[in-house]
Amino acid sequence: MAQGRPLIPQHEQQHRAVQGPWTKYLKYVDRDDPAKLQILYVFRDFQLTGIAVTAETAEIAVKLGRLQHERIMEKRAKQEQDLEEARAANDASIAFQKLLDDQPDGVVYYVRRGNLIKIGTTRAFVTRMRSLMPDEILAIEPGSYSLENQRHQQFAEHRYGRDQRGAKSEYFHPSDELLQHIKAVRKRHGIPQQLGVSITDGRRMFEDAADLQSGSTCHSR
């Protein structure tokens, strides 16, 4: 029974193809040189263009082959880096989209710390307040990540810098626009209890009686 041809890897086929008529130039090439294939291609081009191979031109061929190999490797590295960055950007986009998926029973909260107002969201409101320990709980409205992101965009021009990681801060200057919005939230959803978790500096941002003609107390979730 006749045997089939042995399988020859593609890279080995390339080596054999280029080495065919130009094996005589292997004496100028280091067997372990990673640029071996590109150097042989240069020798091939020399022969095709009629350039005589001497000790001097052989040295030039080796240098040109190594330069071509270096450029090929740089191009591959750049392609791999671009691919990695594209994958990372895609992963970040997916993660951000997941972040915007609303959580059931979430609330968006407005709290004061010093002279700034933090707009955040949580499902465990009391636990979050105990961790955050704000000076004052200003308002709460039903919602989750998408509403929080909407509020951050709504008051983006009043945002206070970035956090320690370089991400956009969740703290905002108490602009008239933001304060009016908080008053509207308090009127719609009631005045929040302080829950005994606040470390107040003794100030009050709003006088409840003046701001609300009637308003029920907002209970924590």
Which helices and strands occur, and which strands form pairs?
Blueprint: H1 10-19, H2 36-48, H3 55-99, E1 107-113, E2 116-122, H4 125-132, E3 136-142, H5 145-154, E4 171-172, H6 176-189, E5 191-192, H7 208-211, E6 217-218
Parallel strand pairs: 5-6
Antiparallel strand pairs: 1-2, 1-3, 2-4
Helix pairs in contact: 1-2, 2-3
Identify the notable features of this structure and list them briefly.
221 residues, alpha+beta, four-stranded antiparallel sheet, two-stranded parallel ribbon, 6 strands, 12% strand
Walkthrough of the structure:
By secondary structure, the protein is of the alpha+beta class. Strands 3-1-2-4 form a four-stranded antiparallel β-sheet. It has a two-stranded parallel sheet with strand order 5-6. Helix 1 runs parallel beside helix 2 and helix 2 crosses helix 3. The longest helix has 45 residues. The chain is rod-shaped, with a radius of gyration of 35 Å.
Please outline what is shown here.
The protein has 221 residues and is of the alpha+beta class. It has helices spanning 10-19, 36-48, 55-99, 125-132, 145-154, 176-189, 208-211, and strands spanning 107-113, 116-122, 136-142, 171-172, 191-192, 217-218. It has a four-stranded antiparallel β-sheet.
Number of strands: 6
The poorly predicted ranges are: 212-221
Radius of gyration: 35 Å
What's the helical proportion of residues?
40-55%
Order of adjacent strands in the largest pleated sheet: 3-1-2-4
Mean pLDDT: 80
Number of helices: 7
H and E string: HHHEEHEHEHEHE
Structural class: alpha+beta
Q: Work out the strand percent.
A: 5-15%
Give the N-terminus to C-terminus distance in angstroms: 81 Å
User: Which sheet architecture does the biggest sheet show?
Assistant: 4 strands, antiparallel
Overall geometric form: rod-shaped
